[in-house]
Amino acid sequence: MPAASRTQDEAIAGTARRQPSLTWRLLCGTLAALVVVWASFVAMAYQTGVEEADELTDGHLAGVAALLLNLAPGAAVDAGSATERTRLPRLKAHDYQQSLSVAMWDSRGRLLARTGNAPLPPFDIPDGFSELKPPGQAKAWRGFVQWNRTHERKVAVLLEMQERDALAEDIARQMVLPGLWLLPVVALVLGLAVRSGLRPLYSLSDDVAALDVSGAQRLDARVPLREFAPVVASINTLLDRQQVLLARERRLANEVAHELRTPLSSIVLHADALARGLPAGQQAAALDSIGREALRAGHVLNQLLALARTSRIRLQEAAAPVDLAALARSVGADYAQAAWEHGGSIAIVIEADAPVVVQGNAVLLELALRNLVENALRHTPPGTRIEVQVGLSDPQQAAAAGTAAWLQVCDDGARAGAVPATPAADSLHLGHEIVARVAQVHAGAFGPAEAPPSFTTCYRMTFGLPADMPGR
Questions:
Q1: Which helix or strand (DSSP H or E) is residue 295 part of?
Q2: What is the spatial distance between Cα 208 and Cα 193, in angstroms, rounded to a whole number?
Q3: I want to staple 266 with a disulfide (CB 3.0 to 4.6 A). Which of 142, 166, 293, 442 is the partner?
């Protein structure tokens, strides 16, 4: 591989490494959305766990109070004889047996029973749920107070707030932890799924990178997916156009090489003959031949330079309104002397009542028109009448064809009785190639046209609808 090509490939590879990755963009975007949803779920789960634990505790307090009120009152045992809660080792994170304290009074406020380590609440504590914090103590208690139906007994069931909050936190944590453990697993599976889903794209990228644009290759997707069909079709269309352009350029290069070989070989032969010595009359003929062949080769080279210029210039870089009528008059005036020396004439005919203005590059349009006029002078016999015609198409035809302004060069060089011209230097039609490319730059077309009466040959350039044309 040449060093320049290897350097270019390395530069492209380095640029590709610095560009953002579609895989990482999809993965990061998906994971970010997943984390947001997961965080919302965790927050809601935690809040739900706390609320459910509070409701569970309050329901427990109310249930115990109702149970005690429906039992016959009895004396409570002292603290030393109280039965402790049964310990259940199978409970993993939290002892769900809560330490409840109970106080029971009769209707006159006499304490009938009391159990637990909570301080004795006052008899006048209101019914329902409440939070108590005795003076001088740091602990707070959640309580529920209720009278029986006959209003003979009153029960207060108390639970330490710290124990209630610990239960709520434990329940909330048990709801959140599975989601937190599952998040990395989901992220890993999601990453594998994204990478697997993009594998056909990687294959397509490899196939595109392996294409040889100089050969007649076409792209075949190894994974036939519906989403890739337009991409593959577009790439194959570009490849077909590239092949057409390459074939056209190769053919043009071969023809140019052949065209230059003839004058250069003639110059070499005549120069060699002059070097060996020739009679005076033959020397003048040899010098004259060298001059003609040099001009011929120079003309071909000038055409090639003009062709290269049309390939480099983009219309967007220098687009401006161009008056085709004024352009035709200017070019016609420049070639009037040459037409007179050719024994013929050149005329300008404007077939439009309104200005014929197109949006384009004035330099390129002048170059194209000059090539058409020069070809008419070079390819026709002496006495040929040349006419540059400019006009606007019929509005209805223009709307249907998408073109309105046109510019053409006509001649009567193939008229009856005319002596055929000697084959011109531009036998390769390089001038027409230049005009065709100028028309292409201006989104127009170029080709032979039907010759008006009294003319035998016409070549026309067509352009799009002018910006100020009525009915556009």
A1: helix 280-312
A2: 24
A3: 293
SS3 153: strand
φ/ψ bin of 453: left (φ > 0), alpha (ψ from -120 to 50), beta (otherwise): beta
Pair of tokens at residue 325: 């009528």
Q: Report pLDDT for 14.
A: 53
Which amino acid, one-letter code, is at 242? Q
Tokens of 46: 């935690």
Task: Report how far apart the first and last C-alpha atoms of the chain are (Å, whole number).
Answer: 54
Indicate the length of the chain as a whole number.
472
Which residues does 193 contact at the CB level (< 8 Å), separation at least 6? none
Place of tokens 């045992």: 77
On the 0-12 / 13-18 / 19+ scale of CB atoms within 10 A, 144 is buried
What would the two tokens of residue 372 be?
């058409």
* 205: region left, alpha or beta (phi > 0 left; psi from -120 to 50 alpha): alpha
Q: Is this model's pTM higher than 0.85 or not? A: no
Alpha helices, H only, 134-228: 161-209
Q: Mean pLDDT over residues 160-180, rounded? A: 78
- Contact by Cβ (8 Å): 374, 445: no
> Whose CA is closest to 249, among 304, 288, 331, 321?
304
pLDDT band at 82 (very low <50, low <70, confident <90, very high): low
Judge whether residue 451 has pLDDT over 60: yes
Name the strand (E) or helix (H) holding 432.
helix 430-441
* Burial class of residue 439 in the structure, from the number of CB atoms within 10 Å of its CB (0-12 exposed, 13-18 middle, 19+ buried): buried
Helix (H) or strand (E) run with residue 4 in it: helix 3-18
C-alpha distances out from residue 394 to 264, 360, 404, 467, Å? 49, 21, 7, 16
Contact 156, 125 (CB under 8 A): yes
CA atoms of 300 and 298, how far apart (whole Å): 5
Q: Which residues contact 111 (CB under 8 A, 6 or more apart)?
A: 103, 104, 105, 120
Amino acid making up residue 472: R
Q: What residue spans of 315-404 are helical by DSSP H?
A: 324-334, 336-341, 362-378, 395-401
Rounded Cα distance between 380 and 344, Å, is 10
76 pLDDT band (50/70/90 cuts)?
low
The share of the chain scoring above pLDDT 90, in percent, equals 11
Residue 50 backbone dihedrals phi, psi, to 5 degrees: -65, -45
